[in-house]
Amino acid sequence: MMGQFNTIPSSPRVMFDEEGDNGLVLCDKYLPVEILIEIFCYVDCKTLMNCQLVCKRWKMLMNYVWHKKTEQTLAKPFPWNDKIPWSVFYFACTKKPYERNLLRNHSGTEGMHHWDLGSNGGDQWRIEEPPVGVPKLPQTEPMFKDRQICFTTSYQRCSKMQDIYLTDEGIHPYILDTYQPPIVVSEWYSCRWDCPAKYQLEVKLIGVDEEQMDKFKFEDILEGEKQNRWLQVSHVFENYGTGLRVISFEHSGRDRLYWAGHYGSKMAGACVSVKIPENICTCTCKKT
Questions:
Q1: Given 1.20.1280, 2.60.40, 1.10.8, 1.10.3470, which CATH number is that of 25-95?
Q2: Tens digits of per-residue pLDDT, 185-219?
Q3: How many CB atoms sit inside 10 A of residue 1's CB?
Q4: pTM (two decimals)
Protein backbone atom coordinates (compact mmCIF):
# COMPACT_ATOMS: atom_id res chain seq x y z
CA MET A 1 0.00 0.00 0.00
CA MET A 2 1.07 3.54 -0.68
CA GLY A 3 2.63 5.28 2.28
CA GLN A 4 3.74 2.03 3.90
CA PHE A 5 7.30 0.73 4.10
CA ASN A 6 9.15 -2.03 5.87
CA THR A 7 12.14 -1.54 8.11
CA ILE A 8 14.66 -4.03 9.37
CA PRO A 9 14.73 -3.95 13.16
CA SER A 10 18.06 -2.70 14.43
CA SER A 11 20.00 -4.88 16.81
CA PRO A 12 19.61 -3.95 20.47
CA ARG A 13 22.03 -1.35 21.81
CA VAL A 14 24.98 -3.00 23.52
CA MET A 15 26.33 -1.42 26.67
CA PHE A 16 30.03 -0.65 26.34
CA ASP A 17 32.28 -3.08 28.17
CA GLU A 18 35.85 -1.84 28.54
CA GLU A 19 37.02 -5.44 29.00
CA GLY A 20 35.09 -6.67 25.97
CA ASP A 21 35.96 -6.59 22.26
CA ASN A 22 33.51 -3.90 21.19
CA GLY A 23 35.21 -1.77 18.53
CA LEU A 24 37.97 -4.32 18.04
CA VAL A 25 36.13 -6.67 15.67
CA LEU A 26 36.19 -5.58 12.04
CA CYS A 27 34.75 -7.79 9.29
CA ASP A 28 34.47 -10.60 11.84
CA LYS A 29 38.17 -10.37 12.60
CA TYR A 30 39.54 -9.39 16.00
CA LEU A 31 42.26 -6.71 15.95
CA PRO A 32 44.40 -6.13 19.04
CA VAL A 33 44.47 -2.55 20.29
CA GLU A 34 48.13 -2.15 19.28
CA ILE A 35 47.38 -3.15 15.67
CA LEU A 36 44.33 -0.89 15.48
CA ILE A 37 46.36 2.09 16.72
CA GLU A 38 49.06 1.35 14.15
CA ILE A 39 46.46 1.28 11.35
CA PHE A 40 44.92 4.56 12.51
CA CYS A 41 48.33 6.25 12.29
CA TYR A 42 48.21 5.85 8.50
CA VAL A 43 44.84 7.57 8.28
CA ASP A 44 44.70 11.25 7.26
CA CYS A 45 43.79 13.81 9.91
CA LYS A 46 40.33 14.64 8.55
CA THR A 47 39.32 10.97 8.53
CA LEU A 48 40.70 10.51 12.05
CA MET A 49 38.34 13.20 13.27
CA ASN A 50 35.42 11.16 11.93
CA CYS A 51 36.81 7.95 13.43
CA GLN A 52 36.47 9.51 16.87
CA LEU A 53 32.68 9.42 16.41
CA VAL A 54 32.37 5.72 15.50
CA CYS A 55 32.19 4.20 18.98
CA LYS A 56 33.37 4.71 22.54
CA ARG A 57 36.29 2.32 22.11
CA TRP A 58 37.66 4.23 19.16
CA LYS A 59 37.17 7.53 20.93
CA MET A 60 39.17 6.20 23.90
CA LEU A 61 41.99 5.16 21.60
CA MET A 62 42.16 8.38 19.61
CA ASN A 63 44.38 10.39 21.96
CA TYR A 64 47.00 7.62 21.83
CA VAL A 65 46.65 7.58 18.04
CA TRP A 66 46.92 11.37 17.75
CA HIS A 67 49.98 11.42 19.99
CA LYS A 68 51.75 8.72 18.01
CA LYS A 69 50.83 10.36 14.70
CA THR A 70 52.17 13.69 16.00
CA GLU A 71 55.53 12.17 16.91
CA GLN A 72 55.71 10.53 13.47
CA THR A 73 54.85 13.84 11.76
CA LEU A 74 57.33 15.93 13.75
CA ALA A 75 59.95 13.16 13.88
CA LYS A 76 60.56 14.11 17.52
CA PRO A 77 59.14 13.20 20.93
CA PHE A 78 56.05 15.18 21.91
CA PRO A 79 54.64 15.63 25.44
CA TRP A 80 51.94 13.30 26.65
CA ASN A 81 49.42 13.30 29.43
CA ASP A 82 45.85 12.06 29.44
CA LYS A 83 44.45 15.59 29.79
CA ILE A 84 45.86 16.94 26.53
CA PRO A 85 42.97 17.72 24.14
CA TRP A 86 43.05 15.84 20.84
CA SER A 87 43.04 19.21 19.04
CA VAL A 88 46.59 19.86 20.33
CA PHE A 89 47.80 16.91 18.28
CA TYR A 90 45.57 17.76 15.31
CA PHE A 91 47.10 21.24 14.94
CA ALA A 92 50.61 19.86 15.48
CA CYS A 93 50.06 17.42 12.60
CA THR A 94 48.27 19.74 10.18
CA LYS A 95 50.09 23.06 10.75
CA LYS A 96 53.46 21.82 12.03
CA PRO A 97 53.97 25.01 14.08
CA TYR A 98 56.94 23.90 16.19
CA GLU A 99 60.59 24.65 15.48
CA ARG A 100 59.89 26.55 12.27
CA ASN A 101 60.10 30.27 11.57
CA LEU A 102 56.73 31.84 12.42
CA LEU A 103 57.75 35.21 10.96
CA ARG A 104 56.81 35.76 7.35
CA ASN A 105 59.09 37.43 4.79
CA HIS A 106 62.12 37.37 7.08
CA SER A 107 64.57 39.03 4.67
CA GLY A 108 62.56 40.94 2.08
CA THR A 109 61.90 38.39 -0.65
CA GLU A 110 58.27 39.61 -0.66
CA GLY A 111 59.05 43.30 -0.43
CA MET A 112 57.48 44.78 2.71
CA HIS A 113 54.57 42.30 2.65
CA HIS A 114 53.51 41.01 6.10
CA TRP A 115 55.27 43.89 7.88
CA ASP A 116 53.60 46.95 9.43
CA LEU A 117 55.71 50.04 8.85
CA GLY A 118 56.38 52.29 11.84
CA SER A 119 58.97 54.98 11.17
CA ASN A 120 60.04 55.31 7.55
CA GLY A 121 62.48 58.20 7.78
CA GLY A 122 65.26 59.50 5.58
CA ASP A 123 65.12 57.82 2.19
CA GLN A 124 62.93 55.11 3.73
CA TRP A 125 63.30 51.34 3.87
CA ARG A 126 64.98 49.61 0.99
CA ILE A 127 65.54 46.00 -0.02
CA GLU A 128 69.00 45.12 -1.32
CA GLU A 129 69.78 42.04 -3.38
CA PRO A 130 72.58 41.37 -2.83
CA PRO A 131 73.40 43.47 0.27
CA VAL A 132 75.64 46.43 -0.61
CA GLY A 133 78.89 47.29 1.17
CA VAL A 134 78.93 44.19 3.39
CA PRO A 135 80.07 40.56 3.04
CA LYS A 136 77.73 37.81 1.92
CA LEU A 137 75.12 36.62 4.40
CA PRO A 138 76.34 33.52 6.29
CA GLN A 139 76.17 30.47 4.05
CA THR A 140 75.89 28.27 7.13
CA GLU A 141 72.27 29.46 7.41
CA PRO A 142 69.92 27.49 5.09
CA MET A 143 67.64 30.52 4.67
CA PHE A 144 70.44 32.42 2.88
CA LYS A 145 71.61 29.73 0.49
CA ASP A 146 69.14 30.49 -2.30
CA ARG A 147 69.08 34.31 -2.15
CA GLN A 148 71.32 37.04 -0.77
CA ILE A 149 68.79 39.70 0.25
CA CYS A 150 68.22 42.03 3.20
CA PHE A 151 66.32 45.04 4.53
CA THR A 152 68.31 48.30 4.67
CA THR A 153 67.63 51.51 6.62
CA SER A 154 68.45 55.16 5.93
CA TYR A 155 69.73 58.30 7.72
CA GLN A 156 66.66 58.64 9.93
CA ARG A 157 64.96 55.92 11.96
CA CYS A 158 63.28 53.17 9.99
CA SER A 159 61.19 50.66 11.91
CA LYS A 160 58.67 47.93 11.16
CA MET A 161 56.90 45.21 13.11
CA GLN A 162 55.05 41.94 12.75
CA ASP A 163 52.64 40.26 15.18
CA ILE A 164 52.46 36.48 15.44
CA TYR A 165 49.13 35.05 16.65
CA LEU A 166 50.22 31.75 18.10
CA THR A 167 46.86 29.97 18.10
CA ASP A 168 46.37 30.88 14.43
CA GLU A 169 49.74 29.29 13.70
CA GLY A 170 48.57 26.05 15.35
CA ILE A 171 50.07 26.28 18.85
CA HIS A 172 47.26 25.30 21.19
CA PRO A 173 46.50 27.40 24.31
CA TYR A 174 46.81 24.21 26.39
CA ILE A 175 50.45 23.81 25.33
CA LEU A 176 51.21 27.50 25.87
CA ASP A 177 49.66 27.56 29.35
CA THR A 178 50.66 24.12 30.65
CA TYR A 179 54.10 23.61 29.14
CA GLN A 180 55.21 27.16 28.31
CA PRO A 181 57.56 25.95 25.55
CA PRO A 182 60.79 27.92 24.97
CA ILE A 183 60.50 30.66 22.35
CA VAL A 184 63.66 31.53 20.42
CA VAL A 185 64.00 34.88 18.63
CA SER A 186 66.96 35.86 16.47
CA GLU A 187 68.11 38.04 13.59
CA TRP A 188 71.25 38.82 11.59
CA TYR A 189 72.27 42.48 11.27
CA SER A 190 75.14 44.47 9.77
CA CYS A 191 76.25 47.85 8.39
CA ARG A 192 78.49 49.06 5.59
CA TRP A 193 82.27 49.32 5.85
CA ASP A 194 82.20 53.09 5.26
CA CYS A 195 79.38 54.28 7.57
CA PRO A 196 78.61 53.35 11.19
CA ALA A 197 75.00 52.56 12.09
CA LYS A 198 72.57 51.73 14.87
CA TYR A 199 70.42 48.56 15.14
CA GLN A 200 67.56 47.87 17.56
CA LEU A 201 65.33 44.88 18.25
CA GLU A 202 62.37 44.64 20.60
CA VAL A 203 60.25 41.51 21.06
CA LYS A 204 57.19 41.48 23.33
CA LEU A 205 55.09 38.62 24.64
CA ILE A 206 51.42 39.65 24.80
CA GLY A 207 48.83 37.82 26.92
CA VAL A 208 45.21 36.97 26.32
CA ASP A 209 44.27 40.18 28.13
CA GLU A 210 46.50 42.15 25.70
CA GLU A 211 48.92 43.02 28.49
CA GLN A 212 52.69 42.66 28.08
CA MET A 213 53.99 39.54 29.83
CA ASP A 214 57.69 39.77 28.98
CA LYS A 215 60.02 41.77 26.74
CA PHE A 216 63.46 41.48 25.17
CA LYS A 217 65.14 44.70 24.05
CA PHE A 218 68.47 44.87 22.28
CA GLU A 219 70.51 47.76 20.83
CA ASP A 220 73.90 47.79 19.13
CA ILE A 221 76.05 50.63 17.81
CA LEU A 222 77.94 49.34 14.80
CA GLU A 223 81.27 51.10 14.70
CA GLY A 224 84.87 50.08 14.03
CA GLU A 225 85.32 46.32 14.19
CA LYS A 226 81.55 45.77 14.17
CA GLN A 227 81.23 47.27 10.71
CA ASN A 228 81.37 45.25 7.50
CA ARG A 229 80.42 41.96 9.16
CA TRP A 230 77.22 40.08 9.93
CA LEU A 231 76.32 39.73 13.60
CA GLN A 232 73.50 37.73 15.16
CA VAL A 233 71.31 38.57 18.12
CA SER A 234 69.41 35.75 19.84
CA HIS A 235 67.23 35.37 22.93
CA VAL A 236 65.18 32.59 24.53
CA PHE A 237 61.94 33.27 26.42
CA GLU A 238 61.16 30.72 29.16
CA ASN A 239 58.80 30.49 32.18
CA TYR A 240 56.81 33.45 30.88
CA GLY A 241 53.55 32.49 32.62
CA THR A 242 50.08 31.48 31.45
CA GLY A 243 47.99 33.34 28.93
CA LEU A 244 50.53 34.02 26.13
CA ARG A 245 48.81 34.43 22.77
CA VAL A 246 50.77 36.97 20.65
CA ILE A 247 54.45 37.67 19.94
CA SER A 248 55.27 41.17 18.68
CA PHE A 249 58.56 41.52 16.77
CA GLU A 250 59.89 45.01 15.94
CA HIS A 251 63.28 45.98 14.52
CA SER A 252 64.70 49.34 13.52
CA GLY A 253 67.87 51.12 12.49
CA ARG A 254 69.56 54.12 10.91
CA ASP A 255 73.02 55.30 9.96
CA ARG A 256 75.18 57.42 12.29
CA LEU A 257 76.47 60.01 9.82
CA TYR A 258 73.16 61.17 8.31
CA TRP A 259 74.26 60.39 4.77
CA ALA A 260 71.56 60.55 2.10
CA GLY A 261 70.73 57.17 0.64
CA HIS A 262 70.78 53.81 2.39
CA TYR A 263 73.85 53.67 4.63
CA GLY A 264 71.97 52.53 7.75
CA SER A 265 71.91 49.15 9.45
CA LYS A 266 70.85 46.10 7.49
CA MET A 267 68.87 43.11 8.78
CA ALA A 268 67.99 39.66 7.47
CA GLY A 269 66.82 36.27 8.67
CA ALA A 270 64.44 37.50 11.36
CA CYS A 271 63.21 34.39 13.15
CA VAL A 272 60.73 33.45 15.88
CA SER A 273 60.33 29.75 16.64
CA VAL A 274 58.57 27.81 19.37
CA LYS A 275 60.39 24.72 20.58
CA ILE A 276 58.67 21.41 21.15
CA PRO A 277 58.04 21.36 24.92
CA GLU A 278 59.75 18.72 27.01
CA ASN A 279 58.61 19.11 30.60
CA ILE A 280 55.62 20.65 32.31
CA CYS A 281 56.45 24.12 33.59
CA THR A 282 55.65 24.59 37.26
CA CYS A 283 55.40 28.37 36.90
CA THR A 284 51.73 29.43 36.67
CA CYS A 285 51.96 33.14 37.50
CA LYS A 286 52.39 35.84 34.88
CA LYS A 287 55.41 38.08 35.12
CA THR A 288 54.80 41.64 36.24
A1: 1.20.1280
A2: 999 999 999 999 999 999 999 999 999 999 999 99
A3: 4
A4: 0.86
